[in-house]
Amino acid sequence: MTIQWFPGHMLETENLLKKVISKVDAVLEILDARLPQASANPFVNKICKGKFRLKVLNKNDLADPEQTKLWLDYFETEKKVPAVSICGTQRSQTYAALNYCVSQINRNRARKLKVMVLGIPNTGKSTILNSLAGKKIAKTGNVPAITRHQQRTSLNNNIDIYDTPGILWPVIEPKQKAYILAASGAISDTAIDYTDIAFFAATLLIKKYPDLLMLRYPFLETLPEDEIMLIEKIGSAKGCLKKGGIVNLQKASEVLIRELRSGKIGKISFETPKDIEL
What we know:
The chain folds into two domains: 8-163, 3-Layer(aba) Sandwich (Rossmann fold), CATH 3.40.50; 193-276, Conserved Hypothetical Protein Ylqf, Chain: A, domain 2 (Orthogonal Bundle). Helices cover 42% and strands 12% of the residues. Strand 5 (151-155) and strand 6 (159-163) form a beta hairpin. The protein has helices at 8-20, 42-47, 65-78, 91-103, 125-133, 175-184, 194-208, 210-216, 227-237, 249-262, 273-276; strands at 26-32, 52-58, 83-85, 113-118, 151-155, 159-163. By secondary structure, the chain is of the alpha/beta class. InterPro entries: GTP-bd (IPR006073), GTP-bd_ortho_bundle_sf (IPR023179), GTP-bd_ribosome_bgen (IPR019991), GTPase_MTG1 (IPR016478), P-loop_NTPase (IPR027417).
């Protein structure tokens, strides 16, 4: 599956970032802790050369904690870049990430320190900004591309932080990365086929998180043999039926994806550092 979802405002954002990146002192690159590699936009590497950049693995409350630890070690040991993991709704954690970033910069306290927040859609950038500000100043939501324009907020300690729209790249490849991004909610649902994504998600869950599946769906007497059987059993139990008792795969797929994204199935990571070696 090749996904092409590149709204016009994303191209505008790229052009804007190229112009303003020279004016900031540091960058907080917000990644999804469930998919740190897939949620990293290659464009950020190009424009952040020469700037201090901290990789922030957000949504660690939804990710497999063991895998998050491995990802932090991977970035710091293999990639030689600083990384932290946070839950963006926890102000203490967001400030710890910001303070670490600030501590790495030689600054003139007579002028404001400028920190830019970058990342792909739906990684929680606006949530982090609201958490830092201690009030709602940026729109948030469970759909990608909520933020459409750059926003500046003044914080304590003479710091300005800039929130920017999420940016993807025009063609998302390879297929595995496209599936991971779609399953996590980083891509608009209008650009994907729910059943296609649910088959991918079901395969991952059966293979890597069978215990969580059985715990979440007690009507599963045994672990389903394949992804179709899992989706059909979920659809049957949740009343996603057509006439004649036939399972509506579209509706059943939507149920699975919603519960996966919300964390109801459990703390799950879509990829591991070992996957990079494959």
